[in-house]
Amino acid sequence: MLTKKRVMAEAHEAPETVVAARAIEEAEEVVRNHGTATDYLLGAVRLSMGWIFFWAFIDKMFGLGYATAADKAWIAGGSPTSGFLNFGVKGPFAELYKGMAGMMVVDWMFMLGLLAIGVTLLLGVGVRLGAYIGVLILLLMYTAGFILPEHNPIIDEHIVYAIIMLTLAAAGAGRYLGLGKVWAKTDLVKRFPILE
After folding, report:
1. Which 8-state DSSP code applies to residue 11?
2. Burial 49-73 (b: 16+ CB within 10 A, else e)
3. How far apart are CA 50 and CA 120, in angstroms?
4. CA distances from 124 to 10, 39, 195 (A)
5. Whole-prediction pTM
6. Nearest Cα to 122, choosing from 49, 38, 171, 36?
């Protein structure tokens, strides 16, 4: 199989390779400018995951009555982590996590993590960093209460979501249905690729 690099290297030797090299460049340009169905699906998955985390942040912040009652909202003085850390943890790390219940630094880290994941994935800016933060939070939640889950002894939604997050980071999913293409061209991202 001829690669673009090989075709370009051999272009000076045979005129037909010049034509092949131009065809490869034109095909790459079409792919860059016109997304495939996979690109749009990656964008849709990114937006969906972003909304899951952003919604969790909003509901815990304002107590909209879905997962968090209004009187338990963070802005009403409630702790976004104490309920789960006091009553939802199980397994070998339960005591470790129970000891963190109600700690202000834990609440802040959790809420800022939810916000960072949600905003980066929704905008398509900083997707790689947001995805890595997401993987960390998901793995912490998995070890806090979902080791050997009731319905599947190995895989649960936390592991699946973590795999999705890594896929979004690896695929550069911020470029699809988001601001990632523009963001990736900035000097900041070129200097610190983790911000892509």
Report:
1. T
2. bbeebbebbbbbbebeeeebeeebb
3. 7
4. 39, 13, 11
5. 0.79
6. 49
Whole-angstrom Cα distance, residue 47 to residue 176? 10
For residue 97, what are its two tokens? 């996590």
Cα 74 from chain centroid (whole Å): 24
Q: Are residues 105 and 171 in the same domain?
A: yes
| Same domain flag for 126 and 176 | yes
Domain count, the chain: 2
Tokens 């939802």, residue located? 88
Domain housing 93 = 37-195
Q: One digit per residue, pLDDT tens: the chain, 196 residues?
A: 445 555 455 545 555 666 666 767 766 665 565 568 889 999 999 999 999 999 999 999 999 999 999 999 999 999 999 999 999 898 889 999 999 998 999 999 999 999 999 999 999 999 999 999 999 999 999 888 866 666 777 788 899 999 999 999 999 999 999 999 999 999 999 999 989 9
Structure tokens at 162: 């973590």
For residues 28 and 52, membership in a common domain is answered with: no
Specify the amino acid at residue 128.
R
